[in-house]
Specification:
The complex is a heterotrimer of chains A (381), B (341) and C (316). By secondary structure, chain A is α/β, with parallel strands linked by helices. Chain A is built from 13 helices and 14 strands. Chain A folds into two domains: 186 residues, 3-Layer(aba) Sandwich (Rossmann fold), CATH 3.40.50; 140 residues, 3-Layer(aba) Sandwich (Rossmann fold). In chain A, helix 2 links the parallel strand 1 and strand 2. Chain A is globular, with a radius of gyration of 23 Å. Classes of the chains: A alpha/beta (381), B mainly alpha (341), C mainly alpha (316). At the B-C interface, helix 6, helix 11 and helix 13 of B face helix 4, helix 5, helix 10 and helix 12 of C.
Chain lengths: 381, 341, 316
């Protein structure tokens, strides 16, 4: 036993040393600089969204910092795994970290709701590239993010009806089956889709939590209701699994989904089954809206941009402009954002209303998967 | 045989009253001063240290103490402990947003709600033996979480937001400086320790101990094992419920994904890691396992991997936990008997 | 509410049985270990995950399967199936052996505390799934199906698909082989002897460590096979896939009577059917609630599961 105690102490001592070394890295630096943060899922099930976004932030910051500016901008990444429970443990830290003057994010609505109280109290301004839940900018909701919360994309209240409309375009007498994934995003969007469907076209609905592997029951319901359109409100990986099983079971109708599925991973996963899938998203991909920047992005980052890259670059550029104009505190940043009038990376207008919504929010884009790629077709009105 | 637990006990036995009082106060002072230690090597990257002290550390300690009564003291394997935490949290969330009651008024209601949930679960299931109990409690935890997730009337997947802070008691609870929350939870922990120690030396504690060592023998000796098992369960549930009420009040937002099976398993790991049955061990275990993942945040990707390794290595080095229970309390082993843990 | 069930009964039943056989095989990993050690092998779900990854890797990277390719000839297909299945089984069997060595053996000899091995097994499980997560960057990996998903014939409106059929028959064959092995072989007798009474078995000259290792390996082989069938039917793998499936398989083992391999067989198929029917009747989101309520009800009336405990017959 004695030996074990000694070895235990040895472990503790070496651990303390390691911590000590790590903690003693000097925090202050001579160069004048400000820090912004990115918050989103960098690990966990939804990591792809976060990694795409954080790369877009890094791209914009690299372009700026390479110009040897007077004030350098640093980036802190905050991993909330896209989950409210995790956001609760990181948000107080970000709020208390006085060096952070603005946040790009949070990426997901659920994590935003959990983080908001802290950022409101710390008056830490944030602009999200992808949190589309309506309650965040709804004055009557407890989740109301005023004054700190802003976002670039338009909300589920616009996306839902657009999805409902876009999904039925190929069917003369559509019968729609709606499947959501039980996430805050999926259930929210599904309820707007159901509301917007023309009466009598809703065949039925099911909720399949995101650890569902076997969709046999859901598929049986699609078949027994004779639905010819399936709308899935959830994320890309599950969407591909569902679509593959639908096609294997002989479903011949259309498959439609919202922005959570707008990902090359969906097409890679579903392969030829993805052909003809109808997608909508409150975003114009960088590759479509600004091919020149996309080409430069590929050159700098070594990979194509992702789903919300355009929004993320827009937000980062806004913060860069603010820093150029001398902003170095949270309150100055907040004023700058509220008074901002400019353009997004894809050339649409950008300014925020009192609730934090984008006045010139890009209309909902309609996409079709063709030849293994998502092709932008038109703006869904 | 030297172990830290016996060393501590020996010191305690040898000391006279003033020394004991002084020791207790010195330790308490150090622990209470922890929120001011945020700039030392203890600092957690990204997450704020004072917030980490409240959750996960403080909450884990509270819950681990409650679970310890069920698992460590009376030997029943409960894998659904988070259910009671959830019941307390949802009681707080619903009552505070619908009625105007404050946290301290809801606290007893939340505790009672969790106790009722405990009784409801215990009556049909406590006649089951060890591992069957494990799966049934696990199932109960999932039933509570999934039901909350599927009920739009209590927020569904988005959960409930806008839960108020506890009203201050001569001070105001602050969002960005969580030391008052920490001190409150410290008081709650001390209260729970006191109650558990009272119970342990009295009839229920002796009954639990006899059930843990040999349920059949205890029954033969006239201990109403079923009754005391229910009591252990309900007592554990009450602590979980109380922790849940406070958690909801501090977090202001709760959602079903705060109450997954992983939390139950993590709390169980705290109990075993620290030393089942010994409240000091459980506290140390919960504090370490609550702290480590946030301390290792700078490893980002590898931090859970490291957490798993720590569990494996430490369980192999110290299978009885960091501070195991006293020798005389250890059960006489009957190999293959389901009743011993 | 019951429309779907009536309308699609045979189709649902067929999928349910195929899913059930996957549960049966994973449940072997739990029930064998429990029968011998009286411990829940919490790392079994990760053993399953690794088995499923093995099939994905062999088919995708060794044989260059892809979703767009022309299905190969029967002889080649058969070779690929055998290789994938063997790879999954071997990798999982080996992993199960290592899990026993690292998480259980040392602790088994040192402590009577029955929860300590549980925690160290959970620790191993975390390590395995985190390694897989980091290697795959947490993304779902899609695997081309090896067994083509063509319909063999239609029965009462339900398409009988090749992939489900292979799962059912091969699963049944593996189960029968295992059952016979435990019943008839010398090593199988050793397993039964230890499960009845460890001390007496030791006195009778049974090599305890060898028997326990063998039990883990056998359980791992079965769990690995389940990984192969899973990939064939569902075509995807992910680092945390084992969690929900392992939980379901463990539930199946408890329903049948944990420690009893015939019980696990029954429990697995029953659970597969119950899950699919419940999803069809009350909605997929209520599936776990329905399953656990049924489990609690069963245990109320049969506290040792439907078939009772122990690998063969009863334990004293």
């Amino acid at each position: 036993m004695n030996k074990k105690i000694i070895s235990g102490f040895a472990i503790a001592a070496s651990a303390a040393l390691t911590f000590g070394v790590v903690a003693s890295v000097p925090a202050s630096a001579a160069v004048k600089e400000v820090t912004i943060a990115y918050q989103g899922p960098l690990t966990g099930d939804a990591a792809q969204t976060g990694i795409d976004e954080v790369n877009a932030v890094k791209y914009a910051l690299k372009k700026y910092n390479d110009t040897k500016p007077a004030v350098k901008i640093n980036l802190v990444t905050i991993d909330d795994q896209g989950a409210g429970a995790v956001a609760l443990t990181v948000a107080p830290g970000a709020a208390a970290n006085k060096k952070i003057i603005a946040i790009v994010g949070p990426a997901f609505s659920g994590a935003t709701i959990s983080s908001l109280p802290y950022y409101k109290a710390a008056r830490l301004p944030m602009i999200s590239p992808s949190a589309t839940n309506v309650t965040l900018t709804d004055k009557k909701s407890v989740n109301y993010g005023y004054p700190v919360f802003h976002r670039v994309p338009s909300t589920d209240a616009f996306q839902g009806p657009a999805l409902a409309k876009w999904a039925v375009q190929n069917q003369k007498s559509p019968k729609v089956y709606v499947v959501d994934d039980k996430s805050p995003y999926g259930t929210g969007l599904a309820s707007f889709v159901k509301k917007a469907l023309a009466s009598g076209t809703l065949g039925g609905s099911d909720s399949t939590p995101d650890d569902t592997k076997d969709f046999a029951a859901t598929i049986s319901k699609v078949k027994s209701t004779d639905s010819n359109v399936v709308i899935y409100t959830g994320y890309y990986a599950q969407a591909a699994i569902l679509l593959n099983q639908l096609r294997a079971a002989g479903f011949k109708g259309d498959f439609a989904a919202g922005d959570g599925v707008m990902s090359q991973s969906f097409i890679d996963g579903a392969g030829k089954n993805a052909e003809g899938a109808l997608l909508v998203a409150p975003t114009i991909p960088l590759s479509v809206g600004n091919p020149t920047m996309e080409a430069d992005y590929v050159k700098v980052m070594g990979a194509a941009s992702g789903e919300y890259s355009a929004e993320t670059i827009t937000i980062t550029n806004l913060f860069i402009e603010a820093v150029k104009s001398g902003v170095s505190t949270r309150s100055a940043m907040l004023n700058f954002i509220n008074g901002y009038k400019g353009l997004t990376a894809v050339g649409t207008k950008l300014s925020f209303d009192r609730n934090g919504d984008n006045n010139g929010a890009a209309a909902i884009g309609g996409f079709i998967v063709k030849g293994g790629k998502t092709v932008a077709i038109e703006v869904v009105k | 045989m030297i172990n830290l637990r016996d060393k501590g006990a020996e010191f305690w036995e040898r000391s006279n009253r003033p020394v004991r009082v002084l020791t207790v106060f010195a330790i308490l002072a150090v622990i209470a001063a922890l929120p001011y230690a945020g700039n030392s090597f203890l600092q957690t990257p990204i997450a704020a240290f004072d917030a980490v002290l409240v959750y996960p550390m403080g909450m884990f300690i509270l819950m681990a103490l409650g679970l310890n009564v069920v698992v460590g003291k009376s030997g029943m394997l409960d894998l659904g402990y988070v259910a009671f935490f959830a019941v307390g949290a949802y009681t707080m969330a619903l009552l505070s947003t619908h009625t105007g009651l404050n946290t301290w008024e809801i606290m007893p209601i939340g505790i009672i709600a969790a106790m009722i949930a405990g009784v409801l679960l215990a009556i049909p299931t406590l006649r089951l033996r060890g591992d069957y109990l494990a799966i049934v409690t696990l199932g109960f935890g999932e039933i509570v979480r999934v039901s909350a997730l599927n009920s739009e009337s209590i927020g569904g997947a988005l959960g409930i937001a806008g839960i108020p802070f506890p009203p201050g008691l001569g001070f105001e609870y602050q969002l960005l400086d969580q030391k008052y929350f920490y001190w409150t939870i410290l008081v709650m922990i001390l209260l729970v320790i006191w109650v558990i120690r009272r119970l342990t030396v009295r009839r229920p504690g002796r009954a639990w101990e006899s059930i843990r060592q040999d349920e059949d023998a205890a029954e033969l000796m006239g201990v109403s094992t079923y009754k005391y098992k229910i009591w252990a369960f309900v007592f554990g549930a009450a602590i979980g419920g109380g922790a849940g009420v406070f958690y909801a009040s501090r977090s202001m937002v709760i959602a079903p994904d705060n109450f997954t099976l992983n939390t139950s398993i993590l709390i169980l790991a705290c109990v075993v890691f620290g030393g089942m049955g010994n409240i000091w061990g459980v506290i140390v275990g919960a504090a370490i396992l609550g702290y480590l993942p946030d301390r290792f945040r700078f490893l980002s990707d590898a931090r859970l991997l490291l957490f798993g390794l720590v569990l494996v290595i430490f369980m192999n080095l110290r299978p009885e936990g960091i501070l195991p229970r006293k020798k005389r309390e250890k059960a006489i082993v009957k190999k293959g008997s389901g009743a011993t843990l | 509410m019951f429309d779907t069930l009536i309308h699609q009964f045979w189709s649902l039943t067929y999928s349910g049985i195929a899913l059930g056989f996957i549960y049966v095989l994973i449940a072997m990993g739990y029930t064998m270990v429990y029968g011998v050690l009286r411990m829940i092998n919490f790392a079994n779900s990760e053993i399953f995950t690794v088995g499923a990854f093995a099939t994905m890797i062999v088919s995708k990277y060794v044989f260059d399967f892809s979703a767009e390719m022309i299905p190969p000839s029967n002889a080649k297909l058969f070779l690929v199936i055998i290789c994938c299945l063997a790879a999954s089984m071997l990798v999982s069997g080996l992993l199960a052996f290592l899990v026993e060595l690292v998480a259980y053996r040392h602790l088994r000899n040192r402590t009577s505390n029955r929860i300590a091995p549980l925690i160290s097994a959970i620790g191993i499980g975390i390590v395995i799934s985190e390694v897989v997560r980091i290697l795959t960057r947490a993304r779902t990996q899609f695997s081309p199906n090896v067994v083509p998903k063509k319909a063999l014939f239609t029965f009462q409106g339900a398409e009988i698909r090749l992939d489900n059929t292979v799962t059912i028959f091969a699963g049944l064959a593996l189960f029968i082989i295992l059952e016979r092995f435990i019943k008839l072989s010398r090593l199988g007798k050793g397993i039964r002897a230890v499960s009845m009474d460890e001390d007496s078995a030791k006195l009778m000259g049974v090599n305890l460590n060898r028997v326990i290792s063998l039990t883990f390996i056998l359980g791992g082989l079965m769990t690995g096979a389940a990984g192969f069938f899973y990939v064939n039917v569902y075509e995807n793998v992910k680092y945390n896939m084992g969690f929900s499936l392992g939980l379901a398989a463990f539930t199946a083992a408890v329903i049948g009577g944990i420690g009893n391999i015939r019980g696990a067989f029954f429990g697995g198929i029953a659970l597969g059917l119950v899950e699919i029917y419940a999803s069809a009747i009350v909605g997929t989101q209520w599936k776990p609630v329905t399953v656990f309520i049924i489990l609690i009800l069963i245990l109320l009336f049969r506290p040792n599961g439907i078939f009772g405990e122990a690998i063969q017959k009863t334990r004293v």
